[in-house]
Write a structure and sequence with these properties.
Layout (H helix, E strand, L loop, with lengths): L24 H15 L2 H4 L2 H15 L8 H7 L14 H19 L6 E4 L8 E4 L6 H6 L13 H35 L2 H11 L4 E5 L2 E6 L1 H12 L14 E8 L2 H16 L4 E5 L5 H4 L4 E4 L5 H6 L5 E6 L6 E6 L9 E3 L9 E10 L6 E7 L2 H12 L4 H7 L9 E10 L2 E2 L3 E7 L1
Parallel strand pairs: 3-6, 3-7, 7-12
Antiparallel strand pairs: 1-2, 4-5, 8-9, 9-10, 11-12, 11-13, 13-14, 13-15
Helix pairs in contact: 1-3, 1-7, 3-5, 10-13
Length: about 450
């Protein structure tokens, strides 16, 4: 058995493991073939980061570079971090290594039938461990047990002449196929990870739970007498009425009301993060302190009644503006770089008149000091917020975004303006109107 076991960042030559550079050619080929099978398997096919990390660790181990398998080195060479980055504040290597262990466990639980090699990443180590499920036979191993070597092909041994070359050709074909798969995986790695995962990568890599800030409005409860009187007055507009309120007939409940569209947006977001096994903390806006914003990745839902979202958008290119109140309110998306009149306008149509269109803004910002990520999404009305959440959590929308965005957008700030047509109470899929990357 070829074993490589490393604790921490070092290597103990007396630990019983065999150095990879001392392995035979068939052993090395079998490991490389197993690596290729794992990289294209379902647990790894949609995770470019896990593919990159596993291939890097196996290649370094086979090359005998065990002392180089350190957290900082991996962060720099695999995940593009600066040479002096703070490993205590940025735990991407540890997080991705834990994810890699889970994906390996999934592979060997469901997809390892017929494998001859098992590749594990022991806890607390960045050096893979190789175990033979079906040991590779060598001539030296047979000689130790006194078994004769294979008979050389000759006219006197026609059966051997037929079988032996065929076996050698088969093994050569397997090694060649494995090499082709490994090369193909390397060339395809930049395109294997879906674009939506590239956008969410900084949030998912953060070790802390994601903080989702949820807006809610004050809710009024009316006594039946008051409600009936108001409804009756609404049927005869223009006629003066007087209504005397008794104590307790109107009760205001703080943070007691949330729109259906906001609820749908939050459910989409919760499902998306749960599928990626990301812990989430939901808090109402008044429950969020300034210290909370800097402690973890933050997602801000809605723009109105959300002071954190309003503050974040203060100096950005795209922002919401409005004038008037109630039935006379008009809102729009302002492009602060343009002097032209706004084009993306919505009459608030208060309270429930038909609404033909809505617009939304999705924003992602990186905090330069802490490296934390803040994502904000909101619509002029609730329909915009709902489709913004659909855009953020729907893989099919991100190929167009990646096509329009400049190279390197994954680690840069961005704003996206979306449009949705509304038919009745059903919004259409979002459409990208504008993108700003900086």
């Amino acid at each position: 058995m070829l074993g490589v076991a490393v604790s921490g960042d070092g290597h103990d030559p007396d630990s019983g493991g065999v150095r990879p550079e001392g392995s035979s050619v068939p052993e090395r080929a079998a490991i490389e073939e197993q690596l290729a099978r794992i990289l294209i398997s379902p647990p790894f096919a949609n995770s470019r980061r896990s593919q990159q990390l596993l291939k890097y660790l196996v290649d370094r181990t086979l090359a005998g570079d065990l002392p180089g398998l350190k957290e900082r080195t991996i962060g720099v060479e695999v995940f593009g971090r600066d040479l002096e980055y703070d490993t205590s504040a940025d735990a991407i290597v540890r997080v991705r290594a834990n994810e890699l262990r889970k994906r390996l466990a999934q592979y060997y639980e469901r997809y390892a039938a017929g494998d001859t090699v098992r590749i594990d990443l022991p806890p607390g180590s960045y050096a893979p461990r190789f175990s033979w499920l079906n040991p590779v036979e060598t001539a030296a191993g047979k000689a130790e047990r006194g078994e004769p070597e294979a008979v050389s092909p000759s006219p006197e041994h026609p059966a051997s002449t037929e079988r032996w070359p065929r076996g050698r050709k088969l093994r050569a074909a397997v090694w060649l196929a494995a090499l082709v798969l490994v090369v193909a995986a390397i060339l395809l790695l930049p395109w294997l990870e879906p674009d939506i995962e590239r956008f969410w990568g900084p949030v998912l890599a953060a070790p802390q739970p994601v903080l989702v800030c949820v807006p809610a409005r004050e809710r009024l409860f009316l006594d039946d007498r008051v409600r009936d009187a108001l409804l009756d007055a609404g049927r005869s507009p223009g006629q003066p009425r007087s209504l005397k309120l008794e104590p307790g007939e109107v009760v205001a409940v703080p943070q007691g009301q949330m729109s259906v569209q906001n609820v749908r947006a939050i459910l989409s977001l919760s499902r998306f993060l749960a599928e990626r096994r990301k812990t989430v903390q939901f808090r109402l806006i008044p429950e969020v302190a300034f210290e909370d914003i800097g402690q973890s990745a933050v997602i801000l839902v809605g723009a109105y009644h959300n002071p954190w979202a309003e503050q974040m958008a203060r100096d950005l290119r795209f922002a919401f503006e409005s004038r008037g109140t109630g039935s006379r309110e008009v809102s729009w998306v302002r492009d602060r770089r343009s002097q032209a009149e706004p084009e993306w306008i919505v009459h608030k149509l208060w309270p429930y008149a038909p609404q033909p269109v809505d617009y939304a803004i999705v924003t992602r910002l990186f905090d330069r000091s802490s490296g934390r990520v803040v994502i904000s999404f909101a619509g002029l009305n609730g329909f915009g917020t709902q489709v913004a959440a659909e855009f953020l959590t729907g893989r099919r929308y991100w190929s167009e975004f990646a096509r329009l965005a400049p190279k390197g957008w994954e680690r840069r700030n961005c704003q996206i303006v979306l449009e949705t047509k509304v038919v009745g109470l059903v919004p259409s899929p979002p459409r990208i109107l504008a993108i700003e990357i900086w």
